Amino acid sequence: MLKYVKRVAYHTYEYFLSKEVTSSYIPEHIAIIMDGNRRYANRIGKLTTYGHVKGASVTEKVIEWCYEVGIKQLTIYAFSTENFNRAEDEKQKLFELIGLKFDELCKDERTHKKKIHIRAIGDIQKLPISLQYSIKEAERCTATYDQFYLNVAIAYGGRQDIVQAVRKIAEKVDKGQLNTEDITESTIANHLYPAAGNAIPNVDLIIRTGGDERVSNFLPWQTCGNECATYFCAPYWPEFRKIDFLRSIRIYQERLQEKKLVMIKRNAVLLEALKKKDSEIITKYPTKTIHEV
Fold it and tell me: CA–CA separation, 54 vs 86, rounded Å?
């Protein structure tokens, strides 16, 4: 009976939270650091692979939730450059799982019905050939879609991304294809991963599960420059629920509202200062107009 009551209470809360969140501004681009798969498996006495499999099922749900509320881009941190230091057996099983998920996305009718554009960002050449093939096939079969973008950061490091972009720009300058005075922020953004196609846009909200409050070299150009909202939460990734997802969006909305209030206060102070200055000028020069002074 208690379990039933808890389940009803949870779904009721989720319903009203969803109503609240969808009635306000929705972030266009969310990035997620899916942390805690291994710690989750260890806590319940399972193999690491079990945690990754459970985490992958949550990722599928999150894609659905993003589409439901109207988010346009989701970037997930699947495998960092630092993750190459993990045990060979764990890496092999993880690569197999990721490849399987790319294959499933490519075949899933929901991908095509919702026109999900799949892209991988990172140094893909460092990955096993079979995984590279799965990635390229998923990108190929969704290349014309533009309703929702799923960016999978794999073999990815933020600093590495900026370094490879600078190298490409330097090569163009060296070949006379680009003048140094023409280099702008947009130039750099357009040379970040992915190398072809539209650049990954600025991130509005970054989520990290697992309790750590850091962004781990993830999309530094798109997050730091945009002053995006951050949501750090305690649940490990396999435990991430829809209410956690909705709460993260509410944090984004609250931050957006705070910024608006700050701007309103600043404008009010500026307006009051201008009025005071005009009053002082009129008092000092009663026979002249403001423009004449």
Answer: 19
- Kindly state the average pLDDT of the residues 43-69: 97
pTM above 0.85, yes or no: yes
Specify whether the backbone of 243 is left (phi greater than 0), alpha (psi in -120 to 50) or beta: alpha
Catalytic residue chosen out of the listed positions 83, 190, 217, 226: 83
83: annotated active-site residue: yes
Tokens read off for 21 = 């969140």
Name the nearest CA neighbour of 84 among 122, 136, 51, 138: 122
Q: What digits encode the pLDDT tens for the residues 99-136?
A: 999 999 999 999 999 999 999 999 999 999 999 999 99
Is the pLDDT confidence value at 281 over 90?
no
Catalytic annotation present for 161: no
